[in-house]
């Protein structure tokens, strides 16, 4: 009767190789209002706090109040306009995904936001967009619904869930802290989870096959 000797396999050799974690998604938060006395910075700081709590997201801010783009579009912008584009275009191009923060003006979104969007095209393509809105009774939701149509034309994917602040001015204290953060914090998590899923999925897909839509 023959006997065999079993050679022990090292434990490390029997375990699968660890899967490296993906690099954090680069999120550009776009502050859509440049109106005098705007409430946007208060909401933006709240949002940035939610994003910075996550290790899977790296945040950048594009504020329409910091750039002065004309509403008259041009294929050959002047040196002055090119300088203004230089303040924002690289940030949009580098982003994997966007969160657009918008108020509602006259049942729509601000002209400053539309101008920023219209001066760009390739920077939006095949990237996901989420929305945080604020306003009166509607909470800016009518502005968001119109923005969904705009970004669909630009080959962007808008995520389903939003964060909306109704009567926003009364929701925050004088230090910019939300008075009852449990509901908006939960809504932000859902929205950012969806944005992260789409952002990672589209980033990986484009690394294999460039988007040609």
Walk me through this protein's architecture.
It comes from Streptomyces phaeochromogenes. This protein is an alpha/beta fold and 213 residues long. It is 38% helix and 16% strand. It has helices at residues 11-14, 40-52, 79-94, 111-118, 141-153, 182-208, and strands at residues 25-31, 57-63, 97-103, 128-135, 157-158, 163-166. Strands 1, 2, 3, 4, 5 and 6 form a six-stranded parallel β-sheet that branches. Helix 2 (40-52) links the parallel strand 1 and strand 2 (57-63). The longest helix has 27 residues, at 182-208. The chain is globular, with a radius of gyration of 22 Å. The protein starts with 10 loop residues before the first helix and ends in a 5-residue tail after the last helix.
How many beta-strand runs? Answer: 6
Structural class determined from secondary elements: alpha/beta
What share of residues is helical?
25-40%
Q: Report the radius of gyration as a whole number of Å.
A: 22 Å
InterPro entries: Flavoprotein-like_sf (IPR029039), FMN_Rdtase-like_dom (IPR005025), NAD(P)H-dep_reductase (IPR050712)
Protein name: NAD(P)H-dependent oxidoreductase
Domain NADPH-dependent FMN reductase-like: 26-168
Pfam family, one: FMN_red
What does the secondary structure layout of this molecule look like, with pairings?
Elements: H1 11-14, E1 25-31, H2 40-52, E2 57-63, H3 79-94, E3 97-103, H4 111-118, E4 128-135, H5 141-153, E5 157-158, E6 163-166, H6 182-208
Parallel strand pairs: 1-2, 1-3, 3-4, 4-5, 4-6
